[in-house]
Amino acid sequence: MPTPLDRATSQRTPFFAFAAIVTGVAAWSIWGQDLFPSRDPQGDPETWTHEECVTWLKKRNLHPSPLATTTELLERIRANMRVARN
Fold first, then answer.
1. d(CA 37, CA 21)
2. What average pLDDT values come out for the chain (86 residues) when binned by 10 residues?
3. In which element (H, E) is residue 30 found?
4. In the prediction, which pLDDT does 37 show?
5. What residues form the membrane-spanning segments (predicted)?
6. Does residue 53 contact residue 70 with C-beta atoms inside 8 Å?
7. Which of 14, 71, 32, 3 has the alpha carbon at shortest distance from 79?
8. What is the pTM of this model?
9. Which one of 9, 47, 62, 74 is most buried, by most CB atoms within 10 A?
């Protein structure tokens, strides 16, 4: 008489589910959390749209206010940009 463990191991669905989980975890660990990286706005911040300003601040965990204007966001971006070293 088969036990519940015997019945579980003889089915294919749990095996494929386990294999999919292991494959997903392996892919995540190989490529890191930037599996689908979002693009960082490039160029002069003065020409960025409101959404690009919000994206730039969010990527740096600076928590932009949803009520902030584009001008206020640009001030925060300028204050947090790194100075180019020569």
1. 22
2. 79 87 88 69 91 92 93 93 69
3. helix 12-31
4. 64
5. 12-31
6. yes
7. 71
8. 0.54
9. 74
